Structure to design on (304 residues):
């Protein structure tokens, strides 16, 4: 039942992705990606991940705002056509080959609905579920994993996030630092 | 079946990254790939009839072990979504700078290392 429902949502996402990539209007494609994000959020709600779903919704709104800011202020002129025909054909053939091998790989995964933790009682996730509430005092096991069991791991992730924001700020800097120093030197002299 | 559909969504995003000329479309392709990977990781942890991993009055830790979904991919994906936003900021900043330099979003027009 839930597998069919999620499959329908993913088919909706695939249609949205094709529309987003193939339409000529940039604003419509950004809004299509927003629809995909909302569908992903609903899927998260269906499979028992409410905190991920709320995070996904908030991040989705921010993503749409950033992308619209990037596209609308500049030109909405459509750029027609793909790259040259030969390269496009080769890319599509390679993607198809990847898909065939991917089907082969995905057939070896555990069945949908029976994850590995239900077969191995000594898995780490089972320990988190069993003793997370006692050891950390957090009723939400996910926050106990993020802040206690894997705190240093998440700290390194935050470094990556910080580096990304820092890079964006460095790229978008309006005045260059060199010119300013020259001005200061000139005033001193 | 669900995993294969996720992989199809990933491949559509990869098609956007490799075959599109418009730099905004390439960023959208990246976003679609990111969504499909996050969804795939969460779907891997789904248990039949599973509940969210939250201790409640009616849900003791012993009940959680038998009924809850896998919490580890959820903790991973939560950070992955947030990092995706940071990387998106970086990509959009680079795209805006390229637009200011070349006057277009078309990547086939961007052919100079130094301007």
């Amino acid at each position: 039942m839930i597998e069919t429902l999620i499959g329908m949502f993913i088919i909706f996402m695939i249609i949205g992705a094709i529309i987003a990539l193939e339409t000529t209007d940039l604003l419509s494609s950004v809004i299509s990606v927003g629809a995909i994000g909302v569908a992903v959020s609903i899927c998260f709600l269906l499979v028992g991940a409410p905190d991920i779903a709320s995070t996904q919704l908030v991040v989705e709104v921010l993503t749409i705002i950033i992308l619209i800011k990037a596209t609308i202020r500049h030109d909405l002129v459509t750029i027609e056509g793909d790259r040259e025909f030969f390269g496009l054909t080769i890319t599509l053939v390679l993607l198809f080959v990847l898909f065939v091998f991917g089907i082969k790989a995905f057939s070896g995964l555990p069945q949908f609905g029976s994850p590995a933790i239900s077969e191995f009682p000594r898995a780490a996730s089972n320990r988190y579920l069993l003793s997370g509430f006692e050891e950390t005092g957090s009723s939400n096991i996910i926050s106990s994993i993020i802040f206690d069991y894997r705190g240093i791991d998440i700290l390194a992730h935050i470094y990556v996030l910080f580096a990304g924001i820092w890079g964006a700020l460095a790229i978008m800097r309006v005045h260059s630092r060199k010119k300013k120093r020259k001005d200061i030197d000139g005033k001193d002299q | 079946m669900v995993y294969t559909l996720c992989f199809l969504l990933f491949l559509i995003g990869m098609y956007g990254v490799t075959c599109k000329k418009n730099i905004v479309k390439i960023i959208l392709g990246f976003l679609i790939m990111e969504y499909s990977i996050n969804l795939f990781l969460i779907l891997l942890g789904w248990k039949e009839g599973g509940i969210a991993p939250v201790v409640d009055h009616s849900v003791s830790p012993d009940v959680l072990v038998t009924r809850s979904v896998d919490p580890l991919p959820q903790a991973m994906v939560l950070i992955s979504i947030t990092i995706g936003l940071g990387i998106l900021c970086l990509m959009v900043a680079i795209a805006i700078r390229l637009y200011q330099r070349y006057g277009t979003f078309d990547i086939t027009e961007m052919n100079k290392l130094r301007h």
